[in-house]
Each structure stands twice: as structure tokens, then as C-alpha cells.
Amino acid sequence: MLNLLIALDQLAWVLLTLGNGSPDETISAAAYRMESQGKLAGRILRPVIDAIFLALERDHCRLSYESEVSGSQLPSAYRARIP
Q1: Over 70: is that where the pLDDT of 58 sits?
Q2: What is the reported pLDDT for 30?
Q3: Which helix (H) or strand (E) holds 12?
Q4: Could you please report the per-residue DSSP string of 17-47?
Q5: DSSP 74
């Protein structure tokens, strides 16, 4: 079920960006990345998303971004290939 929710999140991000978003990036990871780049959208989205997920985990957007960067969300067969 979690994989389905993540897939829908990634699809929503690509649709929201009219195809310019990375198809493997979640809205949460994108919000953190954009805030780190000083973009207004990130400064608005990241605190809102983190507040929504606060009951489940702290720093949700940062953790999502770090998961993307490290590849920890990938199946083990793909992680073994990352240098």
C-alpha cells in the first residue's frame, strides 16, 4: 500500500510541474530541495508538508530528500549498483 501512495505522490508531482518534475521525486523531497535552493515554492510547501506529517515523523521533507539522494528508497538490486 505504501508503494502505491508513493507512486501516486510521484505522479502528482510530475502533473503539478506539467511534466518538468522528476518522475522519481516525491512532492516532499521536491519541497525540501526547492527550499534549499532558496525558491519561494519550497519555502511555502516544506513547512506545510512537514506540519501535515508531524504526527508520523519529524522533518518529513528532509528525510524524503535524503532518501532520494542516498537511493535508500530503491530496491536492494538497484542500491548495489550505486557507487
Answers
A1: yes
A2: 97
A3: helix 2-16
A4: TTT-S-TT--HHHHHHHHHHTT-HHHHHHHH
A5: S
Q: Which triple of cell numbers denotes residue 6?
A: 508513493
Cell of 73: 528508497
Nearest to 44 by CA among 56, 32, 58, 26: 32
Is residue 23 within 8 A of residue 10, CB to CB? The reply is yes
Decide: helix, strand or coil at residue 63: helix
Please enumerate, as own/partner, the contacts of 48-53 that have beta carbons within 8 Å and a separation of 24 or more. Answer: 53/28
Give pLDDT tens digits for 15-36: 999 988 888 899 999 999 999 9
Residue 38: DSSP 8-state? T
The residues near 66 (Cβ < 8 Å, ≥ 6 apart) are 72
Amino acid at 63: L
